[in-house]
């Protein structure tokens, strides 16, 4: 369940945070976004929604700043779902042996993506946090978040470049199609499209939306 934080009793939040079958939730998960709708529809929530894990939805501009100082409640640390965290990956169901072998076969694909994107991303990896979305971008725990970067920009301050981790869903048909593409030009188009989709979902904007549209149209008719 997704919990908008407006006027919600903190003790009640802590008491509600349970996994299915009453196993207590070790962390209090939250997401910050420009609006409640954007927070609620974020692909970062897909696995948590599937598992029935409750998440705080924070949509006021000041919320990101606040969460840098509000680090825990009632002994439970707050964890942003848009940052890479081991506990989030552990929430995924155990991957069977056949799936593990299939993922090993994707190692050359991941290497190709890394070679293509180079320094534009911090890392490229597979993830099991997604159910419907082909890819997301996340940040390390020590990296500035997207929302914090927006706060800096709104205040007229210099914004350091955010280095994202590009995470791909190995079960998604578009990722599989990209992995099976041998033609380097078309492979590049697929990877750029997946990255732009992930960036658009994370930031709400793209540096060159017209290029994104042209690329998408080319792939649709090819």
UniProtKB/TrEMBL annotation:
Keywords: Chaperone, Stress response. InterPro entries: HSP90_C, Hsp90_fam, Ribosomal_Su5_D2-typ_SF. GO terms for molecular function: ATP binding; ATP hydrolysis activity; ATP-dependent protein folding chaperone; unfolded protein binding. Pfam families: HSP90 (PF00183). It comes from the Bacteria. Belongs to the heat shock protein 90 family. This is Chaperone (Heat shock protein).
């Amino acid at each position: 369940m997704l919990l908008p934080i407006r006027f919600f009793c903190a003790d009640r939040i802590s008491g509600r945070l349970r996994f299915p079958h009453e196993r207590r939730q070790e962390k209090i998960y939250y997401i910050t976004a420009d609006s409640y709708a954007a927070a609620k529809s974020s692909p970062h929530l897909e696995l948590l929604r599937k598992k029935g894990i409750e998440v705080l939805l924070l949509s006021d501009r000041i919320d990101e700043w606040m969460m840098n100082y509000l680090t825990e409640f009632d002994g439970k640390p707050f964890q942003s779902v848009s940052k890479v965290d081991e506990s989030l990956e552990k929430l995924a169901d155990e991957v069977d042996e056949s799936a593990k072998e299939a993922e090993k076969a994707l190692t050359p694909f991941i290497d190709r993506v890394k070679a293509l994107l180079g320094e534009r991303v911090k890392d490229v990896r597979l993830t099991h946090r997604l159910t419907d979305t082909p890819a997301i971008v996340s940040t390390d725990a020590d990296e500035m978040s997207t929302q914090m970067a927006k706060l800096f920009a709104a205040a007229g301050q210099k914004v350091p470049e955010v280095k994202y981790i590009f995470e791909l869903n190995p079960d998604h048909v578009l990722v599989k199609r990209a992995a099976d593409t041998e033609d380097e030009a078309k492979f590049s188009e697929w990877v750029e499209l997946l990255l732009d989709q992930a960036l658009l979902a994370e930031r709400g904007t793209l540096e060159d939306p017209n290029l994104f549209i042209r690329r998408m149209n080319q792939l649709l008719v090819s």
